[in-house]
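Archive maintenance. Older records in this collection stored only the sequence; we are now back-filling the structure field for every entry so that each record is complete. The fields below show one back-filled record exactly as it appears after the update. Entries are processed alphabetically, and Stage II sporulation protein D is next in the queue.

ARCHIVE ENTRY
Title: Stage II sporulation protein D
Organism field: Lederbergia galactosidilytica
Length field: 339
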Amino acid sequence: MKSIKPILISATLLITLTFIIPSLLVLFSKDEKAVVQEKAKVESPKKETSEVPEPDVAVFRSESKEIETFPLEEYVTGVVAVEMPADFEVEALKAQALAARTYVVNFLLQTDDNSVPEGANITDTVTHQVFKNQDELKELWGKDFDWKYKKVSEAVQATKGEILTYKDKPITASFFSTSNGYTENAEEYWKDKIPYLKSVESPWDSKAPNFESEKKIPVKEFENLLGVSIGSQKEVGKITSKTSGNKVATVQIADKTFSGREIREKLDLRSTDFRWVREGDSITITTKGYGHGVGMSQYGANGMAQAGKNYRDIVQHYYHDIHISEANQLFDKQLAFNS
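Back-filled structure field:
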């Protein structure tokens, strides 16, 4: 009788090969496909992106009377560096960056603005936004340049491309130094009502240096500046109305009525929250806050940051019903419109 062992071995080998060969074929097929795909990745050209490049800002330099061009984010850094103290909280600096970037984007999107010299987008003065380049900041800051510029630059880059919009348009991102505890409705300082510039509480400002300040003016100078005569009267004038932000709206002096803004500008006061008292031949005027009071308070923003709020909280507190948007989206739309 023949042994069945060789038969069993042959059967086992046949069964094994039946499973192994298809597996090897599948493995080879996968490897070959992977090689082909990898080769296609290398050989196929990269798709062009539609990302809008960072725009340049042409700045008219008031001292040299020349136009200098800077990338948008470098320009914003040069604005934040001089418009807000570098030792402020980072979140406050970020909020300031959004306001500064929004402001200049408005100018970049305008095509018929005659308020700046030909070839420029904006000036470097308080008429628009104060700006200094790196060399000027080195001179201004001296040995503190490195840490200050790094801090401001990082705050700007952390918000790169972000602007403030209302109904898909950049807002008028006004700001000022210090409130009296409240900001102002736009129409109560300027002429036009702006829906996102409404009076809000800003209690953090009371900790600002020189929150209250005094100024003495000789009676004769006071009379000349305002074109009034108060003679020997002890009472200087009567405040007849106040704004929503608890500042002087109107005041009557002798037979004339002035707005709080007129008094501030004619007497060069720090704000429109003022009171006065006559002391012999001079008038002592006490003011609270510093600036026009419309929009974002810088010391208020810093106070919010110290209390743990981030830059989004800050801008949404001072600007009503606004959104944080990407500037590139607006540049995209303008390119599409102009093409």
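Update note: Residues 212-288 form one domain. The mean pLDDT is 86.
Entry marked complete.
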